[in-house]
Amino acid sequence: xxxxxMTPEDLAAIEAAVKAAEARTTGEIYCVLxxxxxxxxxxxxxxxxxVALLAPAILLLFGVQVTAPDMGMFGGWSAxxxxxxxxxxxxxxxxxxxxxxxxxxxxxxxxxxxxxxRRALTPRGMKxxxxxxxxxxxxxxxxxHATRERTGVLIYVSAAERMAELIADExxxxxxxxxxxDRAMAALTDGLKRGRPAEGFTAAIxxxxxxxxxxxxxxPGDNPNELADAIVVAxxxxxx
Length: 240
Hints:
By secondary structure, the chain is an alpha/beta fold. It has 2 domains: 8-40 and 123-234, Diaminopimelate Epimerase, Chain A, domain 1, CATH 3.10.310.50; 42-119. It has helices spanning 8-22, 42-52, 55-61, 79-112, 115-121, 124-141, 170-175, 182-193, 197-215; strands at 28-34, 152-158, 163-168, 232-234. It has a 4-stranded mixed β-sheet, with helices on both faces. The model has no long low-confidence stretch (mean pLDDT 84).
C-alpha cells in the first residue's frame, strides 16, 4: 500500500480550505494527519505466543512421539535401568519441544514486528479503537473542547491504518445527528484509498462547512479564529 505523502502545496490547499470554511460559520475545523495511531506492540507478542503453542502439534505431525519403552527389548536389564532410559527419552522429547517453541516464538516475533506485517495481522477492530482513542486525545490536547461556543470539529486521519475519525464538540453534537457527517467521511476515505489525502481533506472540509454554515452561520464582525487553520502532521506514537 502506497504511503500517504503530503506536499507543501497539499498542506497549503488544506489550510486554504479551512479558512474558506470558517469564514462561513462560527464552527472551528481542525485537521490532523497522523503517521500511525499506535505501534501495536502487543500484536507480535500475541502471534509469537500463539505460534509457539503449536510446537507439540508440529512434533506430532512429523512423527515425534513420547511413548513408554517396550519392556521386551530390555531383556536382562534392571528395572532401574529401564526407568532411566524412559526418563531420558521423555526428557529429550520435552527439551526438543521447548527448543522448538522458543525458536518458533523468536522467528514469529521477528517477522510480525515488521511494520507492514504487524499492521496486517492486527485485528481491524483494535486498529479502529486505537484510531478513535488517538483522535479523542488530539481533540482534547488541541483544546477543541474549549472554543467559545463549543463548536470545534476535528478531522483526524491515521495514515498507516487508512482510517479517519470526525469528532464534533458538544454544541454541534447536540444539534447535528451523527450520520450527517457520512458524506464528508466518505469523501475523506475515498481520497485516502486513492492515495490523495489532500483531495480527501479538502472535500471533507467543504462538506463539513455546508453543515456548519446551515446551523451555525458566521456573524459579521463576531467570528474569531480560535484555532490554527494549518493541518497538523503528527508523528507515530511510541510505546503504546
